[in-house]
């Protein structure tokens, strides 16, 4: 009789551990997929923004033909944000984002010098679309970073930390701004 009780207790313990293990693994898989989805959302919005930039450049070029250096920098920065490495690694994407934001500040500074450009419906429409896209990128980054936080927490907590690496799960990198001091104050754009 004692043997049967011990066997039942062991069986219950194994079932409970098995259920916990499956739940832990499924939770990690779910969070991993959520982070991948969030990263995909970021890349979609970065691509959308990159598609708007040539139109914005052409609009500004029509008014400011002698500002070739600015246009070249914006074009390079745009290319960097949609390049393979930037779309695969959040830290490289953040560096490309910093370069892009700097180039866009220069482009908007050029636009400030041309009041007729600032009144152009095409320019205003592109500016509005770009602003909308920036908001979507910001929201996608928050969603991604939230997913990374949840995944990294689940990987680090005990006893998951013993099994996560063995199951092929690793911590993900947050999409962070490289120069936090540069974004303390919002950029001032006047049109």
Alpha carbon gap, first and last residue: 86 Å
The CATH H-level superfamily is LemA-like domain
Briefly, what CATH class? Mainly Alpha
Q: What is the name of the CATH topology?
A: de novo design (two linked rop proteins)
Low-confidence stretches: none
Mean pLDDT: 83
The percent range for helix content is over 70%
The count of domains is: 1
Question: Biggest sheet, open or closed, and with what strands and sense?
Answer: none
Total strands: the figure is 0
Sum up the structure in keywords.
191 residues, mainly alpha, de novo design (two linked rop proteins), 77% helix, rod-shaped
What does this structure look like?
This protein is mainly alpha-helical and 191 residues long. The protein has a single domain (37-183), classed as de novo design (two linked rop proteins) (Up-down Bundle). Helices cover 77% and strands 0% of the residues. It has 7 helices and no strands.
List the helices and strands and how they pair.
Elements: H1 2-61, H2 68-81, H3 84-88, H4 90-112, H5 115-119, H6 121-156, H7 160-163
Describe the structure in brief:
It is built from 7 helices and no strands.
């Amino acid at each position: 009789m004692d043997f049967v009780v011990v066997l039942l207790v062991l069986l219950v313990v194994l079932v409970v551990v098995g259920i916990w293990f499956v739940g832990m693994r499924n939770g990690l898989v779910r969070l991993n997929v959520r982070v991948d989805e969030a990263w995909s959302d970021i890349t979609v919005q970065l691509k959308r923004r990159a598609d708007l930039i040539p139109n914005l450049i052409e609009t500004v070029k029509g008014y400011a033909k002698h500002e070739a250096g600015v246009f070249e920098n914006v074009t390079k920065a745009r290319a960097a944000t949609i390049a393979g490495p930037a779309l695969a690694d959040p830290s490289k994407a953040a560096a490309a984002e910093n370069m892009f934001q700097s180039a866009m500040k220069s482009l908007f500074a050029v636009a400030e010098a041309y009041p007729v450009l600032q009144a152009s419906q095409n320019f205003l429409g592109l500016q509005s679309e770009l602003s909308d896209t920036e908001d979507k990128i910001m929201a996608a980054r928050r969603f991604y970073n939230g997913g990374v936080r949840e995944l990294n927490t689940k990987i680090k907590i005990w006893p998951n930390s013993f099994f996560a690496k063995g199951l092929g799960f690793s911590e993900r990198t947050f999409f962070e701004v490289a120069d936090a001091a540069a974004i303390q104050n919002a950029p001032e754009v006047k049109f």
